[in-house]
Amino acid sequence: MNDKPLRLGTRRSRLAMAQSGQVAEAVRRVTGRPVELVEITTYGDVSREALAQIGGTGVFVTALREALLRGEVDFAVHSLKDLPTTQPAELVLAAIPEREDPRDVIVARDALKFTDLPPGARIGTGSPRRMAQLNAYARAHGLDIATVAIRGNVDTRIGYVRDGELDAVVLAAAGLNRIGRSDEVTDFLSVDTVLPAPGQGALAIECAADQAELIAALAALDDPLTRAAVTAERSLLAALEAGCSAPVGALADLPPHSAPLERGDADGQIVKEMRLRGVVGTTDGTALVQLSTTGPVPQTHDQALALGRELATEMLAQGAAGLMGERAH
Question: Between 322 and 211, where is the model more confident?
Answer without folding.
Answer: 211
